[in-house]
Amino acid sequence: MGTWLASSRVSPLILRSISRNPRSVCSQAELPKKPVPESDSPPQNLKSSSDSPDETSPEPHFPEIATSGCKDSVLTQADVISSLLSRKNDPDSALQYFKWAERRRGLVRSIDWICILLHILAKDPGTRRHAQNLLNQLASGDSGPTPSIVVDHLVQCPESFGLDPDPLVFDYLLNSYVRAGRLDCAIDCFNSVVGRGIFPSLPFVNLVLRELVNSGLIREAHDVYDKMVANGVEGDSVTVKILMRGCLKEGRDSEAIEFFMKAKEKGTELDAVAYSLSIQAVCKKPDAKLACELLSEMKNKGWVPSEGTFTTVIGSCMKLGTMAEALRLKDEMVSCGRSVNVVVFTSLINGYCKLGQYDSALDLFYRMGESGVAPNMVTYSILIDWSCKNGNMNKACELYGQMKKKGIRPSVFTFNSLLQGLLKKCSLEEVNKLFDEAVEDDIADVSTYNCLLSFFCSEGKVDEAQHLWGKMLSKGITPTIVSYNNVILGYCRVGNLDKACSVLSQLQDSGIKPGVITYTILINGYFKKGDPESAFNMFDQMLIENIPPSDYTYNCLITGMCKASQTSEAQVRLRKFAEENGFAPSALTYNTIIDGFVKEGDINSALAVYGEMCEGGLYPNVVTYSTLIKGLCKSNNFDFALKMWHDVKSKGLHLDVTLYSTLIDGFCKKVDMESAWQFFSELLEVGLSPNTVVYNSMISGFRNLDNLEAALKLYKRMQAEGVPCDLRTYTTLVDAFLKAGELVSGIDLYTEMLAKGFVPDIVTYGVLVNGLCKKGQIDNAQKKLEEMDRKGITPNVLIYNTLIAGHFREGNIQEAFRLHNEMLDRGLVPDDTTYDMLVSGKVKGQRSTSTPGASTAVKM
After folding, report:
1. pLDDT at 14
2. Is the separation of the CB atoms in 854 and 777 below 8 Å?
């Protein structure tokens, strides 16, 4: 007895199974529902229906069987094929015969006569659904023939039996495999059909493509599409949309755009959905200009873009900072009848914030509430973050409170933004309150603790940091490498390198490997403590641990050596790092060495490094030239300094205030105020504003010329322009007044300085003691010495010499020698001036120490 599996070359095991239960192939078990396609789906008449005839209908009569003389005789495959072929023009009769034969005669299906029946049934719209039902059963079974075998028979049977083939059968077969969820079989079927020179109808190919994309089989979908194109089938709008979705799913936005553009060029009728998908792809690039063009095309075609499409384009504009276009689209969105949603409002608020228009962002936030759109967690997070960045902590706290009141749980990002903002204001009371609240609400995570650790350690508050560390551990939060680095940095800041190394050991014991940042912090800490040897030991340990140094590490080593007045050694180390470790020094590295030589007074070596820098292909920047010009001025080589200045201008480098300040200060110290004033004027002409350093240099220069009037004019100009005065400004002006003999004005200015919160340093006290002594106010000068003691400021030799000279002038020999003894007790070494006064009893410029200077006492 024949079976369709027999002709399919299946395994003997499956064949024996079917022989024991021949009707199993005809089982009418419920099959999976057919996928619901879009407008490109197969005809609706392919819905599943039962093959079983109505049990009450009369038994059909088939003459060729009746004449056989035996009602129960078994039909042969040849009988069935012959009977079906005789009914090839009567699909309904062929169907009835098939049902009768299979039910009454124990017929086992054969792939050949099933293929013949399928071609016959597909010809009549009334019987096509039965053809589809047969194919559904075939596709849903696991033991049926492979798709390629089924296709072979569907092609060969019509040729062998002189039957007109119907291409719909291949479409229905594809549909059945998709319906059964057997996408591998659907692909095999598609390839077999195409390989036979038959191309399925486009709606059915689109069905395969859609299911492949929906199942994440994007590459397989592209393979099917490539075969479509190879066979001259470009697809339609549905094909384009399916492939675009597949590309977007994989993040291949450019390919999605390419599919759309090619279809558009070929005149494919694209709908609003295709345009929306293309806009989505374009916005991911992002290309706001093209997105807006496509949006305009949509409207020109009479389509109203969806709320989501508008939202996507506005978001793209915001990413590119085109705020004006985003606002225009928002207005257009409203005019099209689309509601402005929370995403659009939030994007625009974020855009205003990024542009620095914080007030506009707040205004839009209020209008958002007025329009009935409720802000979400992202909206609040953005505004709170930018409120903190703008220093508006009252508004940040207000928004945070609103957020919690509305039941919106703050994210850890929002909380950390608020925490960092409060830390910048040093509002520790508010910080502690907020932190405890976050811990209670289970919002705080390790990043929150790291924020606080960073603050405490950067401020040198290591005890508070240690307490917080214990609290973090008690809450079951595991410290990260960032946590350990913060604490190590804290101990380095206070100079406790032993404790810092202890934390390093704890870090290693915890199983976390120290990183380059950890070791660089310790290296920098040892240099700041004045221990270069330990710094290099730490560097060697870092190498032993196979941790490659970063450029920052190398620069820290070079900078540390230069600050320790080991610039020559730093230069040797630099060459070694470059040759052995592959370190590529930057302009910053060379600038550090140049600055080191300048500070050591070795301008020739500094110039040599400059030459080496240029030969190495690095371009000197303004810092390089500022440092060199400063060194040249310091070495009194003003001609070379001016030549280098002109080189800077000829190279078109940006001339900043620092560069001008360097030359101005050099000429002021040379007491060449004419040249200094020329550069000061040029600074103004090029549109730069003098800063405190520039004004201080100019005021000092005129003070050195005893030109109090010019110094005061600059001081008043400085105040009028809102340039802040510092301690040096006040000290220089007080000195100018005292040198001019205007003691009262000088003391008034000193009092003003104290009222503004400036704390006198040793230079200020030296100016006061010198001025008072010259006016013969030795008692008031002595009080300044006592004031320095109270403030913990140790007087220098110059101040003692001034007081000793003053007492000699007043004839207070005993007090002069007492001050000398006090100097020795403080560990100060008297200089030649001290001994000249003590031995000769005279002060330079004075005939005798017994001549007191007349003066008028001024209350200090």
Report:
1. 29
2. no
In the chain, the largest separation of any two C-alpha atoms, in whole Å, equals: 164
pLDDT value, residue 21: 35
Dihedral angle of Cα 182, 188, 192, 193, to the nearest 10 degrees? 40
pLDDT at 538: 94
Is residue 812 pLDDT above 80, yes or no? yes
Question: How far apart, in Å, do the first and last CA atoms of the chain sit?
Answer: 129
CA distance 348 to 338: 16
Tokens of 23: 């009707």
Buried b / exposed e over 50-68, threshold 16 CB at 10 Å, is ebeeeeeeeeeebeebeee
For 262-330, give the DSSP string: HHHHTT----HHHHHHHHHHHHHTT-HHHHHHHHHHHHHTT----HHHHHHHHHHHHHTT-HHHHHHHH
3-state SS class at 234: coil
CB 213 within 8 A of CB 249: yes
Q: Which two tokens stand for residue 815?
A: 């007090």
What digits encode the pLDDT tens for the residues 586-606? 999 999 999 999 999 999 999
For residue 724 the two structure tokens come to 């802040």
pLDDT at 69 over 50: no
Nearest alpha carbon to residue 316 among 352, 290, 353: 290
| Rounded Cα–Cα distance for residues 520 and 543 (Å) | 12
Lowest mean pLDDT among 22-31, 56-65, 674-683: 22-31
Asked whether the predicted pLDDT for residue 573 surpasses 70, the reply is yes
Task: Give the other-Cβ count within 10 Å of 86's Cβ.
Answer: 13
Percent of the chain with pLDDT over 70: 88
Is residue 346 a contact partner of residue 378, using CB atoms and an 8 Å limit? yes
Per-residue pLDDT of 20-52, as tens digits, reads 333 333 333 232 333 333 333 333 333 333 443
**Sequence-separated (6 or more) residues with CB below 8 Å from residue 282:** 253, 257, 290, 291, 294, 316
Q: What is the CA radius of gyration of the chain?
A: 46
> Chain-centre distance of CA 42, in angstroms?
48
Q: Look at residues 4, 329, 280, 268 and name the one whose alpha carbon lies nearest to residue 134.
A: 4
- Three-class SS state of 65: helix
Extract the tokens encoding 207: 């069905």
- Top pLDDT among 476 and 59 is at 476
Contacts 24+ apart (CB under 8 A), 324-328: 325/288, 325/292, 326/351
Average pLDDT, the chain: 82
For residue 68, is pLDDT > 60? no
DSSP conformation class of 126? T
Q: Is the CB of residue 384 less than 8 Å from the CB of residue 400?
A: yes
Cβ-in-10-Å burial (0-12, 13-18, 19+) of 684 comes to exposed
Cα angle, residue 511 at apex, residues 444 and 456 outer, rounded to 5°: 40
Mean pLDDT of 179-193: 86
**Distance, CA of 474 to CA of 97 (rounded, Å):** 83
- Count each helix (H run) and each strand (E run) in the chain, helices first: 46, 0
For 574, the 3-state DSSP assignment is: helix
The beta-strand segments (E) located in 488-622 are none
Type and span of the H or E element at 171:
helix 168-179
Are the beta carbons of 487 and 456 closer than 8 angstroms?
no
DSSP 26: G
Q: What are phi and psi of 700, to 5 degrees?
A: -65, -40
Q: Provide the pLDDT for residue 301.
A: 82
